[in-house]
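Re: the request from the purification team.
They wanted to know what the chain is likely to look like in 3D before they choose a buffer screen. I agreed to run a prediction and write the result into the notebook, where they can find it.
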Amino acid sequence: MQQPEPINLPEDEAYSLQSDGLQLLSAAKQALSFRKLLFLAGILGAVLGVAYYFWKPVTYTARISFVVEDTKASGSGLMSALAGQFGLDLGNITGGSGILSGDNILELLKSRSLIKKTLLTPADSTSSRSLADVYADSYGWKKKWEQNSKVNKLVQFPPGKESYGRIEDSLLQRIVKNILEKELSVVKIDRKLSFIEMQSTMRDEQLSISFCQRLLKTATDFYIETKTRRLTKNIQRLQAKADSLERSLNKKTYSAADASRLLLDANPAYAAPEVTAEISSRDKYVQSTIYGEIIKNLEINKTAQIQETPTIQVVDNAEIPLKKNKTSALAAVGGGFFLAVFITFLLLTARFVFFGSNAASRKL
């Protein structure tokens, strides 16, 4: 007689979870019984914590907070009304301001070209070394580069140099990349406010504060020059025309005065002196009118430039001594001890769960 096949009943899920929980709890209790092993692991972790304390270099954080005020927005109504009285469209004079508006200033401060330009400024007023030289020395990179077979020379980044070699440019790119990825932070403190905070964290205290302040100045100069470039060119062009017309008008003024004097001494029977005086007076009037219009346009452009120029006001500047970033010895030792104990406890628990108490004890 054929026996019926056994029926596989589904395992109770609640019972399975309870069983797994009890097994895990039992394994954890067994792992805690190895107190000597856990203590030795903690001692080893503490030693590694001490090594980490002495190995990790000290860094310094320079922090600058500032606010960008675009004066064009507050004075645009007044300027438009003033320009309208002279029949001018201020929008055509000033142009758009979207290139460097809003949060674009955040990306401007993280621009590779501006960071590179900042690094190539003199370290101080009396030094022939640049900030890039100080940076490479503080990180010990110059010695590594000199010993590298591909470089095999002492690399220098003298400030004021127009161009550098391929090796220097490549190493500068490495410095810029390291700063962007690890050491520079530019954030908006509050999305509703205009306050921006910039931080630079480096191994040299003076380097950190100098880089942070100069990067802000470099970005500010570029920001203002870009915002007012069109107006500056208009002002230079109008100023050149005004100077030229002023010289010509002065000559016409003397010429008209001479013609008037000759007219007083001339014989009334001759009309030539009167014609000469009339032509001189007319030329003077025409040039005077043109000169007045150019001066009017020049002043409007100067006023528009003032309104267009943004103001970057530093709220909190970085000051020495800077914030020192160094893990305390107690935190390093304690953190290493407890981290090593915790990892060892997890490993022991996992062994007891997967291999059982007897097998795990034999392996240990």
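For the purification team: The chain has 13 helices and five strands.
Please add any questions underneath this entry.
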